[in-house]
Amino acid sequence: MPQAVNQARTEQGGEPSGGLERKPKPRYRSAFRILGGYIEPHRRTFALVVLCTVLAIAAELFQPYLVKVAIDDHLMAGDGGYGSIAAICFVYLGLSLAELVFTYIQNNLLQHAGQSIVARIRKQLFAHMTKLSMSYFDKTPSGSLITHVSSDTEAVNQFFGQVLLTLLRDGLTLVFILVMMFQLDATLGVYCLVLLPVIACIAIAFRSYMRATYQLARTRLSRLVAFVAENLAGMSLIQAFQQQHAQGERFQEQNTSYFQANVREIRTMVLFNRTFDLLSNLVIAFVVWVGGKAVLGASLEFGVLYAFITYIRQFFQPINAITQQWNTLQSATVAVNRIWSVLDTEPEIEDRPQAVRIERESVAGRIDFDRITFGYEGAEPIFRELDLRIRPGELIGVVGTTGAGKSSLMSLLARFYDVQAGAVRIDGRDIRDMAQADLHRIVGLVQQEPYLYAGSMIDNVRMFDASISREEVIRACELVGADQLIQRMEGGYDARLSERGSGLSAGERQLLSFARIIVFRPRILILDEATANLDSRTEQLIQQALEVVSEGRTTIVIAHRLSTIMNADRILVLSRGEIVESGTHAELMARKGYYEELVRHAHGEPELVTALYGAGRN
Ligand SMILES: Nc1ncnc2c1ncn2[C@@H]1O[C@H](COP(=O)(O)OP(=O)(O)OP(=O)(O)O)[C@@H](O)[C@H]1O
């Protein structure tokens, strides 16, 4: 079972596979190409964003120039007209307002477009995950998939909200400042231009170090998330085995290593920022020295020096901002590539182009496992040329030791996996030739741990399918005997269940899943019986419910309690992927073989002790 396999891997201290622990390399070109495809439908918005950015920057950078005009052309020149100074003040105010308005519009437009792109990616990702085959989930820990939907899409969100905004705004600001500087004084402008490679070298040196610290922090965070997700999924196991302390210590190890990586990342960032501040102040001191001498020598106007110093302050700001976004750009690039590695994964099980549509009502329910061979990826085959024929309407009980292949056989019937040789047929038709949507309507599954969603009783029974009426759900619940149980709950059919239906017993959850079967009317029913010990009243209810749901449909019960299958038309005993015995309860008892021995080991009790079959996979 997937979770168990993943859990086992982690419990043994191994690295869970999947996208998380691989050292992800940012592949910028592919990431930008992918994001470009998403930006395309919003091109008008993005054009407007660029326009607003240019106007906002122009409004901002014209302000020091205005002060220069006020100083040199009016104050220093002795042109004491208050009117012209007042006019300059008004223009200054107008420019500030224009800067504010254009920045506001630019920000809003960009954020809106970015958010809608990210919402689209999230939707695509979730829809794609629901189409992936079970073999994919066997290999990929759920923690890493949760990271893709939450933090990875969030990183893409930051790309639009921060990186793109900074690149656009600060990149353009840099260009504009250089133009203004050269326009004011070419010599001072050249000095500043010479500084650019120095600044770039320092930034690049810091960058490569920051990349390593960033990568480390992300990898450790991913591990932490995967660890928490796995522990939440296996909480009952942790509590049952009193593993709280041990798991707490393992969590603390991961937590500390994430903390250390974070501190290192932040320390590097602070050092980088302060170095930049220092550099900026050194350059200002240099310009004050060179420019001050020129002003004293009357070869430079005072207003020009003032404007220059202001521009230098503004010059370092965008470089700093752009390099600060380096982390975010990296995380967004890695995130985009990771998201795409999921979206690029083709489901192993797909409808064939010539897949036929089948009306559920037209299915009689004959099942043939036709000399099938199957094994999980990378493992020895469980079934080798297994043959099994089930007649329409038959009630089949399947028993066998733990790991005999009972659940795997049923997974093949539901086509969660494809056989490697032979064929599984329903009414003589290979299930690989059927549309999966039809197959899953035909084959209904009641799992050992029926999954209940956060939602009302009604919605849980009809699986949020609004075309199934409330009355239908209530009738189904009455038929399987779940009605009384629901009426007893506060809120009745509208009572809200918490995630996974905690608060309900295993038996109660199974009754609800029987009601599901009634409303969805599959022609074939697979029931993986709950291993939990049920009280005799619930067991009786389930027994009656099974009689109701198996009526008129082929039913296969993977049994953990003998009482459930004693009246089955046929009982199959499975051992190591082979059917070693087959017959009715009476026939198998008379045969005094494997089945009889199992019953005898259960001390003649009408129940097979769970231990005989293992405690299940939970
Ligand atoms: N998703 C999986 N990936 C890899 N191996 C698996 C997977 N699921 C089951 N197996 C292996 O296949 C074999 C058959 O498992 P299966 O769950 O079908 O047995 P079972 O008879 O249903 O056992 P149980 O009574 O414990 O549920 C076991 O060895 C098991 O470890």
TrEMBL record:
Subcellular location: Cell membrane
Disordered: annotated segments: 1-24
Membrane topology field: Multi-pass membrane protein
Domain of life: Bacteria
GO CC entries: plasma membrane
Keywords: ATP-binding, Cell membrane, Hydrolase, Membrane, Nucleotide-binding, Protease, Thiol protease, Transmembrane, Transmembrane helix, Transport
Biased composition (Polar residues): 1-10
Keyword Hydrolase assigned: yes
Chain ranges of the ABC transporter domain: 367-601
Single GO molecular function: ATP hydrolysis activity
Transmembrane segments: 45-62, 82-105, 163-182, 188-209, 282-309
UniProt domain ABC transmembrane type-1: residue ranges: 47-331
SMART domains: AAA
Protein name as it appears in the record: ATP-binding cassette subfamily B protein
Organism: Paenibacillus methanolicus
